[in-house]
Amino acid sequence: MRIDVGQALPPANLFDHLAATYDALWTTTAIGRAQRNLVWRDMDTLFQPGMRILDIGCGTGEDAAHFVARGVTVYATDASPAMVQVAQARGGFTAAVCSAEDLAQIGGAFDGAISNFGTLNCVEDLPAVARSLAGLVRPGGRVAICLLGRFCAWETLYYGVRWQFGKALRRLVGHALACPSEEQSSPRAASRHSGDGSR
């Protein structure tokens, strides 16, 4: 299925199917680790030990665990119950089922917030999420957002050197999925799209 720019579809079901293998499919791969390390390099300077941050779209909790190891308290959220279950198993931080659109229901105050690897690409009403964050993040707090672009040089190179040209060029020919649809949430569809980058 092709997704047009600006089209937002609920990804929770697909990620429920991928939760148990997500880290092996993405997080711990060479490209996944390299991209995450680059993002952490910039985010680490924003959040200091003793701060409390919100992780929007936490997936399996990799970012939350990273910040907890640095002395930051993390409240992690994800729309996928299965992803939250994997994140909770890591321990060391709170993880709750909550979509980005429902952040206002959390309450409390945070020193900052993160959203890594495209969670907000799947949000239909970004201004509403921004308003929620304005109410949750204290004045002067930092919000670090990592969105997925139409083209990813790392991804193209990674799959190209592995002779996987379909994956290497999919964003250029319009077959990349910024946000998976409900119909792609079957186990068969999940395995077809599991290499489509990250959350």
Task: Give, in order, the helices and strands.
Answer: HHHEHEHEEHEHHH
Low-confidence parts:
1-9, 175-199
> What's the CATH class, please?
Alpha Beta
**Major β-sheet strand ordering:** 3-2-1-4-5
Q: Radius of gyration, Cα only, in angstroms?
A: 16 Å
Q: Give the overall shape, derived from the CA principal axes.
A: globular
CATH superfamily: Vaccinia Virus protein VP39
Structural class: alpha/beta
Shape-level CATH architecture = 3-Layer(aba) Sandwich
**Share of residues in strands:** 15-25%
Instruction: Count the beta strands.
Output: 5
The number of domains = 1
Q: How much helical structure, as a percent, in the residues?
A: 25-40%
For the largest beta-sheet, the strand count, sense and barrel status come to:
5 strands, parallel
Measure the end-to-end span: 18 Å
- Helices, by number, come to 9
Mean pLDDT: 81
Oligomer: single chain
Determine the CATH topology. Rossmann fold
Task: Please provide a written account of the structure.
This protein is an alpha/beta fold. The chain has one domain: Rossmann fold (3-Layer(aba) Sandwich). The protein is built from 9 helices and 5 strands, in the order H-H-H-E-H-E-H-E-E-H-E-H-H-H. A 5-stranded parallel sheet has the order 3-2-1-4-5. Helix 5 links the parallel strand 2 (73-78) and strand 3 (94-97). The radius of gyration is 16 Å and the shape is globular. Residues 1-9 and 175-199 have low confidence and may be disordered.
Short précis:
This protein has 199 residues and is an alpha/beta fold. It is 38% helix and 15% strand.
